[in-house]
UniProtKB/TrEMBL annotation:
Residues 63-97 form the DUF1232 domain. Keywords: Membrane, Transmembrane, Transmembrane helix. Its main location: membrane. InterPro entries: DUF1232, UCP031804. It is a multi-pass membrane protein. It is found in: Endomembrane system. This is YkvA family protein.
Length: 125
Protein backbone atom coordinates (compact mmCIF):
# COMPACT_ATOMS: atom_id res chain seq x y z
CA UNK A 1 0.00 0.00 0.00
CA UNK A 2 1.41 3.36 -1.01
CA UNK A 3 1.75 6.15 1.53
CA UNK A 4 2.40 9.85 0.96
CA UNK A 5 5.95 9.21 2.14
CA UNK A 6 6.63 6.91 -0.79
CA UNK A 7 6.44 9.81 -3.22
CA UNK A 8 9.38 12.07 -3.89
CA UNK A 9 9.06 15.78 -4.36
CA UNK A 10 9.62 16.84 -7.95
CA UNK A 11 11.81 19.94 -7.61
CA UNK A 12 11.81 20.41 -11.37
CA UNK A 13 8.02 20.84 -11.29
CA UNK A 14 8.39 23.48 -8.57
CA UNK A 15 11.01 25.45 -10.47
CA UNK A 16 8.57 28.23 -11.38
CA UNK A 17 7.68 28.86 -7.73
CA UNK A 18 11.31 28.52 -6.67
CA UNK A 19 12.49 31.03 -9.26
CA UNK A 20 9.71 33.43 -8.24
CA UNK A 21 10.68 33.09 -4.57
CA UNK A 22 14.33 33.67 -5.39
CA UNK A 23 13.47 36.78 -7.42
CA UNK A 24 11.32 38.16 -4.58
CA UNK A 25 13.99 37.48 -1.98
CA UNK A 26 16.80 39.02 -4.04
CA UNK A 27 14.66 42.10 -4.71
CA UNK A 28 13.39 42.68 -1.19
CA UNK A 29 15.66 41.15 1.43
CA UNK A 30 18.03 44.08 2.01
CA UNK A 31 15.20 46.58 1.76
CA UNK A 32 13.33 44.78 4.56
CA UNK A 33 16.42 44.60 6.77
CA UNK A 34 17.19 48.25 6.10
CA UNK A 35 13.69 49.26 7.17
CA UNK A 36 14.27 48.12 10.74
CA UNK A 37 14.03 44.34 10.50
CA UNK A 38 17.80 44.14 11.11
CA UNK A 39 17.03 44.69 14.80
CA UNK A 40 14.74 41.67 15.05
CA UNK A 41 16.07 38.87 17.29
CA UNK A 42 16.17 36.43 14.36
CA UNK A 43 17.73 38.84 11.83
CA UNK A 44 21.10 37.11 11.96
CA UNK A 45 19.55 33.70 11.30
CA UNK A 46 17.50 35.07 8.40
CA UNK A 47 20.59 36.73 6.93
CA UNK A 48 22.65 33.54 7.31
CA UNK A 49 19.83 31.68 5.54
CA UNK A 50 19.99 34.29 2.76
CA UNK A 51 23.72 33.76 2.27
CA UNK A 52 23.26 29.98 2.37
CA UNK A 53 20.52 30.20 -0.27
CA UNK A 54 22.78 32.25 -2.54
CA UNK A 55 25.72 29.86 -2.12
CA UNK A 56 26.14 27.75 -5.26
CA UNK A 57 27.58 24.95 -3.10
CA UNK A 58 24.23 24.64 -1.29
CA UNK A 59 22.14 21.77 -2.73
CA UNK A 60 19.22 22.89 -4.90
CA UNK A 61 16.57 21.36 -2.63
CA UNK A 62 17.97 23.29 0.34
CA UNK A 63 18.08 26.51 -1.66
CA UNK A 64 14.44 26.04 -2.70
CA UNK A 65 13.36 25.62 0.93
CA UNK A 66 15.43 28.57 2.13
CA UNK A 67 14.13 30.89 -0.57
CA UNK A 68 10.58 29.80 0.32
CA UNK A 69 11.09 30.62 4.00
CA UNK A 70 12.76 33.94 3.17
CA UNK A 71 9.96 34.86 0.74
CA UNK A 72 7.48 34.25 3.58
CA UNK A 73 9.56 36.60 5.77
CA UNK A 74 9.27 39.30 3.11
CA UNK A 75 5.51 39.01 2.66
CA UNK A 76 3.77 41.92 4.38
CA UNK A 77 0.49 39.99 4.55
CA UNK A 78 1.24 36.59 6.01
CA UNK A 79 -0.43 34.62 8.83
CA UNK A 80 0.22 37.44 11.32
CA UNK A 81 0.73 40.71 9.41
CA UNK A 82 4.04 42.45 10.13
CA UNK A 83 2.14 45.67 10.81
CA UNK A 84 1.51 44.49 14.38
CA UNK A 85 4.60 45.42 16.44
CA UNK A 86 6.58 42.43 17.74
CA UNK A 87 3.67 39.97 17.33
CA UNK A 88 3.71 40.46 13.55
CA UNK A 89 7.12 38.87 13.21
CA UNK A 90 6.53 35.82 15.42
CA UNK A 91 5.26 33.70 12.55
CA UNK A 92 8.20 34.83 10.39
CA UNK A 93 10.61 33.86 13.17
CA UNK A 94 8.92 30.46 13.49
CA UNK A 95 9.18 29.76 9.76
CA UNK A 96 12.86 30.81 9.65
CA UNK A 97 13.66 28.82 12.83
CA UNK A 98 11.89 25.67 11.62
CA UNK A 99 13.57 25.85 8.22
CA UNK A 100 17.02 26.42 9.71
CA UNK A 101 16.46 23.64 12.23
CA UNK A 102 15.80 21.21 9.38
CA UNK A 103 18.70 22.50 7.30
CA UNK A 104 21.21 23.48 10.00
CA UNK A 105 23.97 21.37 8.51
CA UNK A 106 23.97 23.49 5.36
CA UNK A 107 24.38 26.88 7.04
CA UNK A 108 28.13 27.20 7.44
CA UNK A 109 30.24 29.39 9.73
CA UNK A 110 31.07 31.45 6.61
CA UNK A 111 27.35 32.16 6.05
CA UNK A 112 26.96 33.19 9.70
CA UNK A 113 30.07 35.39 9.59
CA UNK A 114 28.85 37.12 6.41
CA UNK A 115 25.46 37.65 8.09
CA UNK A 116 27.01 39.27 11.18
CA UNK A 117 29.19 41.54 9.03
CA UNK A 118 26.25 42.61 6.84
CA UNK A 119 24.04 43.34 9.85
CA UNK A 120 26.84 45.31 11.52
CA UNK A 121 27.08 47.48 8.39
CA UNK A 122 23.30 48.04 8.29
CA UNK A 123 23.06 48.82 12.00
CA UNK A 124 25.97 51.28 11.80
CA UNK A 125 24.07 53.51 9.37
Amino acid sequence: MATPFDETFDFDAATGDAEDNERKVRAGFWKKLGSGASRLPFAEEATAAYYCALDSATPTRVRVLLFGALAYFLLPTDAVPDLFPVLGFTDDAAVIAATLNMLAGHVTPAHREAARAALDRIRAR
